[in-house]
Amino acid sequence: MSSTISDKVLKFPYVSLVHALRDLSGVARNETEGKTVDRSRTGLWLRSLLAIYDIDDMNRLDLAWWQLDALAEADRFLAARPQARVFEYGSGASTLWLARRAASVTSVEHDGAWHRRVSGMLGSYPHVTLLHVPGAIVGEATSAYGSGKGNAAGLDFRDYAHAIDGQGRFDMIVIDGRCRERCLDLARRHLAPGGIILFDNSNRRRYQKALANCGLAAKRYAGLTACLPYPDETTILSAP
């Protein structure tokens, strides 16, 4: 799940409390010293609750911020395709997770501070390209490439959505950033035969029309989600 600095500030009290509990418990320190992480579905979810908005901890856990069953399905998909090409809208822990499983990853990020943060963690992954494409300021004008995210009001994400153009076809495309409805329309045109699109937070009302009309078969995964104390949903789309 793409995360921005502003998102974290909005959720600061909860995040700070959870991180304090993690530090007091010594969980992360014990893992650094060699203690094995419980990688059962429930065990991994419980541990991930302490890693919310901490990309370093998520990276140590080898997790992407998706619904856990969808994450497992994506893992199986990539394991069967070691030469997979992946495109990702919205960078974060998922970028690092994908880097360990795909032959090439291209990710586009709108937030400059977050782009720098993630870029600093990609030194060991020369096969990953992280693009910075911010939204263009349009003020009060209505944009067909707007975002439903509150802090994105007045921004146009046309260039961001079209960052996938001219890059060929991809075996897997992740939509977990801004302007997701438009990104979905473009993504399906760049999907390789047998490929999948992973659409995160697919239970949000504003995405339902785009998902219903995209012409792809949808499998919705709802329930335990990395880092979240409540259920969420990730959908995997494929050609029928």
From TrEMBL:
UniProt lineage: Bacteria, Pseudomonadati, Pseudomonadota, Alphaproteobacteria, Hyphomicrobiales
Name of a matching Pfam family: Methyltransf_24
InterPro entries (UniProt xref): SAM-dependent_MTases_sf
Protein name: O-methyltransferase
